[in-house]
């Protein structure tokens, strides 16, 4: 009987050691997963920041493009109210008889005009100071 008690004690000791080693492994795995989670969170934040910077740059570029597109609006006449007669298709020859209410301008000339205006504006300001 004493031999049996001794064997049970030895088995209990071995099971305790195995349980402690497994708990240490589980703790190590938990710490490793925590480190990976923190690294992943940092990477996601970094990617988000880069994405926001790219979005901001794209938005600024689109706003710049929109402002350049609308920078040289053509003179427009007041639009007549829409009616069925106004919306009816006109013969092709009649469309060329009178000027269209939308005129296309030469953007190079418009850009040159703006540069001339800016030059004269800054020259006037420099001479007044």
Rg result: 40 Å
- Main β-sheet description: none
Q: Report the count of strand segments.
A: 0
Please identify the oligomeric state. Answer: single chain
Average pLDDT taken over every residue: 79
Coarse morphology: rod-shaped
Give the SSE string.
HHHH
In whole angstroms, the N-to-C terminal distance is 114 Å
Helix share, percent: over 70%
Q: How much strand content do the residues show?
A: under 5%
Assign the structural class, choosing from mainly alpha, mainly beta, alpha/beta, alpha+beta, or little secondary structure. mainly alpha
Enumerate the spans where pLDDT stays under 50 for 5 or more consecutive residues.
92-99
Helix count, DSSP H or I runs of 4 or more residues: 4
How would you describe this structure to a colleague?
This protein has helices at 2-69, 84-87, 92-95, 107-128. With 129 residues, the chain is mostly helical. The protein has a domain at 1-70. 76% of the residues lie in helices and 0% in strands.
Helix-strand layout with pairing:
Blueprint: H1 2-69, H2 84-87, H3 92-95, H4 107-128
In short:
By secondary structure, this protein is mainly α. It contains 4 helices and no strands.
Name the descriptors.
mainly alpha, 129 residues
